[in-house]
Amino acid sequence: MKWSCILFLFLMASCGQPASNAEDNSAEEEVQQVVSEAAPVEADSVQVQNLLNRYACASCHGMESKPVGPGWPEIAARNLTLGQFKTLIANPEPANWPDYTPMAPMGYVPDGDLEKIYAWMTTLTINE
């Protein structure tokens, strides 16, 4: 009887509590991920130009001219989400840009750098 009372009290005390800290941590990590995805990334033009040169983006994409691929304002006009942008950099789809030479996959570009390029790109407009 004594053990059943202790067990009953234990169950009552833990009612509504998470089973472990792992569940707490997992929920907290989920919230952090959502917050970090929603937080805007800022990048200045000089920093982005350095990234565009480092990853050879500037070899094919320009501001006004279109050496090989579409210009940055033209890409920005597509209103891609960050996720779509990252996916298309890693796995380009030539059907999306039929008038241009197909782009090589560039999956090696770090997410943080893609986020800076994306943030900068979304500030651009097409000059007509």
UniProtKB/TrEMBL annotation:
Residues 1-22 form the signal peptide. It comes from the Bacteria. Keywords: Heme, Iron, Metal-binding, Signal. Coiled coil: none annotated. Residues 43-125 form the Cytochrome c domain. InterPro entries: Cyt_c-like_dom, Cyt_c-like_dom_sf. One of its GO terms (molecular function) is heme binding. This is Cytochrome c domain-containing protein. It comes from Fulvivirga sedimenti.
